[in-house]
What we know:
Layout: E1 10-15, E2 18-23, E3 34-38, H1 45-58, E4 65-68, H2 76-84, E5 89-94, H3 96-106, E6 112-117, H4 123-127, H5 135-144, E7 146-159, E8 164-169, E9 172-176, H6 177-183, H7 187-193, H8 197-206, E10 212-218, E11 223-228, E12 230-234, E13 238-239, E14 243-244, E15 256-261, H9 268-280, H10 287-294, E16 302-307, E17 309-322, E18 325-346
Parallel strand pairs: 3-4, 3-5, 5-6, 6-18
Antiparallel strand pairs: 1-2, 2-7, 7-8, 7-18, 9-12, 9-17, 10-11, 10-17, 12-15, 13-14, 15-16, 17-18
Amino acid sequence: MTPSHPTDETTEVPVGGRDEKVTDDSRSGRPQTAAVVYNPVKVSLADLKKAVKKHQFSAGWNETMFYETSVEDPGGGITAQALAAGADVVIAAGGDGTVRNVAEALRGSTAALGLVPAGTGNLLARNLKLDLDHLDSAIETAFRGVDRKIDLGVVDIENEDGSRDRKTFVVMAGLGLDAKMLANTNDKLKARVGWLAYVDAIIRSLRDANGMTIRYDLDGTGKKSMKTHTIILGNCGLLPGNLMLLPDAAIDDGIFDIVALRPEHRIDWIGIWLKIVWENGVLRRSRTGRRIMRHTPEIKTVRYMKGSEIVVRLESPQDFELDGDSHGLAVAIKAWVDPLALRVRVPAGS
């Protein structure tokens, strides 16, 4: 069945760095249909159905469709099925991996992404300042919210074995130590203590020699070389624990915010930590703090860049991650921004 989508009525509203369109599908004149793509390890299907039943009929929507993720299909294939069945909103109920896979399948479509955060990081919901803890509120937003258009990152990956993949990310992608830390995360420990499991992974990752030399070309300005431990491309910048890794990142500005962490000695990690936690997380929040920052010398171990396309080639295969999920070893990537390519449901009036 081919999905049929009405012509949307839109209202211009200022969001972030530029105007974006927020869509009100309730004016389309026909009942809407939602689909839920859920990770059975992360959420209770019974609780989901109870909340959906409460809101779908009061909002005047059709019966909701449910699709369960699996190891074989973590969300992309079943999202395509939901679109073919006529879904106007696809609700991702799970962790960051589920959200990324659903968003990848929704890229460029007129269907919107709804969010039921149920993971460790919940990175997209966190950066959109959505409620992270209330299922009923998340489902209500999916049925009664409005659409906000955001950018997506698209990346072509050359793998260690010479094969190539094209992937999408909604929050961040990282090469080097950042991705190695995720690859070293103990899943059983993560299930018990959540985000704190990454502390254990960081400690284990720092035991190894993590420096790497990269050759990169940002927005076609020419090839450059840099020694670094990790390079992170960000569509938005907030991490769990209220850590602001990329303070100038906006989710709808058409560019990546990029950071390279380049410690020469282990003690340099203290300066990096102070930069991220103290300057980005505390000083930037007040006028006095910003004045202090103007008189504080920049540290060479943290380098920020901006651009809409970057090509990176590595001297040796390095770990690569997308939205907190390890992809494996890569030898080169080409990443670019697909501007306003995804609609996300947010509360009306937000």
